[in-house]
């Protein structure tokens, strides 16, 4: 551990040296226990820079005092956990997932809807929404009238994250046109409404999605099972036992033949392999019975 009392804390009126190894250790234990997030020693400065504004706003004079605060105050702990999350995401990230979904999964879901059935989709760890909007646009497809018919069926999409600031942005559904560029043009034309340098996701697409603050380590209040779960680039922050427990819970939450998409550097290990079959790079399906 290299963080000692030598750097400027950035806290007005507080001398350097108010954040040290014990504070970092305490914060990483809390992040791990509460959210599964592993913060190795190399992240000590990152923790400092992300929490310093909160320490300042809380009126605490030292990180030590702030650690005591977050131990006792659940709301402040929630704020600290939010600040410690990494929310990097972008539209059409890992394009092969959307292509697989469009060609291998969407036709079956449309048949399901045509027979009067329902479709349930979950983006777990949706961050600021780029993933879920990419997926909803792909589900609706490039043909607006067909997409409008799909949107009138029993389709419900859940987008959840532990970071409230990210969910607020996802729900606003407003992005720079520049950021939307990775989305195939036909989908962008069909499901975004340009407004100067920005664009908003079309109302038909927005109407399908419910946003929820949800800690994946906690209880999941959703009663039904999902046809598709995206949980990408979330488990990279977790240790192996947490990943394995989570993937087993996802497997239990899929309908037979339901699909789980995970991040490019992640893979399924452990008991979930008894239930899930590998369908392609970082794509899994729940075996039927
Ligand atoms: C790097 S982003 C990934 C966003 C998107 N899935 C993607 O692949 O582009 C990781 C997200 O996981 C969320 N996250 C981390 N730990 C979580 C937990 N315990 N419960 C729910 N969400 C969590 C973070 O808040 C963050 O928004």
3D architecture notes:
This protein is of the alpha/beta class and 289 residues long. It folds into two domains: 21-84, Chemotaxis Receptor Methyltransferase Cher, domain 1 (Orthogonal Bundle); 95-286, Rossmann fold (3-Layer(aba) Sandwich), CATH 3.40.50.150. 44% of the residues lie in helices and 19% in strands. It contains twelve helices and ten strands. It has helices at residues 21-35, 44-58, 63-72, 74-84, 95-114, 130-140, 144-151, 164-172, 177-180, 185-191, 203-206, 240-252; strands spanning 118-124, 154-161, 174-176, 192-195, 198-201, 209-213, 226-231, 254-262, 276-280, 283-286. The strands form two sheets. The protein has a seven-stranded mixed β-sheet. Helix 12 links the parallel strand 7 (226-231) and strand 8 (254-262). The relative contact order is 0.12. The model is unreliable at 1-7 (pLDDT under 50). S-adenosylmethionine is lined by residues 35-37, 85-89, 93, 125, 127, 131, 161-163, 166, 215-217, 232-234, 237, 263.
Give the total of beta strands.
10
Helix content: 40-55%
Main beta-sheet annotation? 7 strands, mixed
Silhouette? globular
Q: Under CATH, the topology of the largest domain is which?
A: Rossmann fold
What CATH first level of the largest domain would be assigned?
Alpha Beta
List low-pLDDT spans. Answer: 1-7
Structural class: alpha/beta
Ions, cofactors and other ligands present here are: S-adenosylmethionine
The sequence of SSEs as H and E is HHHHHEHHEHEHHEEHEEHEEE
Mean pLDDT: 94
Share of β-strand residues? 15-25%
